[in-house]
Amino acid sequence: MTEILANLITPLTVETFVGEIWTQKAVYLPALHPQRFQELFAWEDLNHLLNFHPLNNPDLRFHQGGQSWPDVPVKQGRDSRTETLRHRLKQGATLILNQVHQRHPPLAQWTAALQRDLGHPVQVNLYLSPPHQQGFNCHYDTHEVFILQLDGEKEWLIYDPTVAYPTSETRQDSDLPPETPPYWQGVLKPGDVLYIPRGHWHYAIALEQYSLHLTVGVSSPTGLDWLEWAIAQLQKQPQWRQNLPLLHLDSQSLEQSLHHLGTALTQWITSDQTLQAYRQHLQHQQPPLPLQLPQQLHPTLDPSEWSLDTHFQPSPLHRPQILGSEAEGWEIDFANRHITLQGLSPAALACLFNPQGFTLSELAETAPTLSLDDALKIIARLVQEGVLSINSQFSH
Question: How far is CA 83 from the centre of its chain?
């Protein structure tokens, strides 16, 4: 399922976006309605973060005209710190909050779902730009970018790349934008989305009002990342830790050794087993399981405290990967946890990992042959591992 991605790129289809747009060219996606992203993040959410979280560089930064402002002192009194933030915005500086998805639960859930759709790591930064101001000079990013306009309007200019598929290692201070005109120029209004491929030069200027937008960065793995992962795996194999023959004393043996290693590398790195292992590695790049206190602090849980209406909720940031069968047992990967469960019907398993959660009563109806004692043992184990939490909002 690619529900989050499909909604994000509407009216394009996922097939069209992946086949014709992704990594190739920028695309503007007009708003379905202006309030489209208000449930993800709004002004009151920004105020909460600034008022109650002592953020500082690199999480909180200011930029203006391509230049960074000094860090905001964390040890300032609350009034002084608030005045500093207000003063810099009134002076025309753009406020940046990095990794904002790690600080706001609705955005964390949305980001985790998009990461599942894409299969690649996703992070979200927030930008607040004063009217008629440009926070950054024309630049390019080394990751894919979606711009989600929350409020205000901002004009964007996007230019062709000068370096194909750049990485942070290939970026040079001497890199300059192309002298050709932008291939896309337009204004984002609330609810609009703009996709910008990595390497495509761009900059933006807020218009008449303060502009608030989210930048969703997608760090797609490359062939270089695959090789880095492979090198880490090869560290475990003695033949790759062995000394190479001395160059000046035995050059022929050196060439033979390199040829042998090259052949072995080709066979190993393209084997089905290795490719599957790398695929699992990519799938396991998920956010950690959230803490579930106080349940996880108890050595053992007392299920006698639970009623038939007690509501259990799996982590909203994750979805299970399930293999196996009722007869052989289920092998479940959930947020980098590997769990084996026996004696459960497919219906019972679906109930346990229902994203909307379940009650003991609902589990009993779904799996009438599952004894209460076995059900409580399974649930207690999943609660202690952090896979399930007890949702007091729904429990009685």
Answer: 33
